[in-house]
Specification:
By secondary structure, this protein is of the alpha/beta class. Helices cover about 50% and strands about 15% of the residues.
Length: about 200
């Protein structure tokens, strides 16, 4: 019997996933959590074989929780189940040592097979997403450029960013101009869109 921890914050989706997994004789959900910061403590209590984790979770995002789980309980394999089919998100997931990355719109029987494969030590990745990740390449932004763009995406003005990062307003504007150029975007708003679509923010 494969023991599963399920981390999903949407109650209806979580209930549907539990019901779906209950149809499989060799799978059992031993714990459910609706927050990322509950994943590791719960896993350490119930010792699942596989953790199915959504990316967007309150408290702690799913990828950070997966990386933490890999360090704290290496016997538990992780399967990211998400609606965020972005190449950058997949690259982050692979960097977090996840065993699998599956989109929520995959056929229902694919989930059970993915859990079994991940438990067996195989890596399961949506093939179309893997190709897109190879095509898109790495994040061209430096960590500082990403930080400035993230703050701008959250609504901060150049003066606010400058104050928080101990930079001059001119330096912040230069960073934002560089970001727009590097992402081949039309303007700051378009740069935010490009970065989000690629999972760089």
């Amino acid at each position: 019997m494969i023991r599963i921890l399920l981390a999903e914050d949407m109650h209806m989706v979580r209930g549907a996933l539990v019901a779906l997994l209950a149809l499989e004789r060799d799978l059992t959900v031993v714990a459910e959590v609706d927050r990322g910061d509950r994943i590791v403590p719960t896993a350490l209590e119930c010792r699942p074989d596989v953790a199915i984790i959504d990316v967007d979770l309150p408290g702690l995002d799913g990828l950070s929780a997966a990386a933490q789980l890999s360090r704290e309980l290496p016997s538990c394999r992780t399967l990211i189940l998400t609606s965020l089919g972005r190449p950058g998100t997949l690259r982050k997931a692979l960097a977090a040592q996840v065993g699998g990355f599956l989109l929520k719109d995959a056929p229902p029987d694919r989930l059970a097979d993915a859990v079994r494969d991940v438990r067996a030590g195989k890596r399961v990745i949506d093939p179309q997403l893997a190709l897109a990740a190879l095509d898109n390449g790495e994040n061209p932004l430096t960590p500082r450029e990403t930080e400035v763009l993230r703050m701008a995406a959250d609504g901060a003005e150049a003066a606010d960013i400058a104050r928080l990062l101990f930079l001059s307003v001119g330096t912040v504007r230069n960073y934002l101009t560089t970001v727009v150029t590097k992402l081949n975007a039309r303007n700051r708003v378009d740069a935010i869109r490009v970065a989000r679509e690629n999972g760089w923010l």
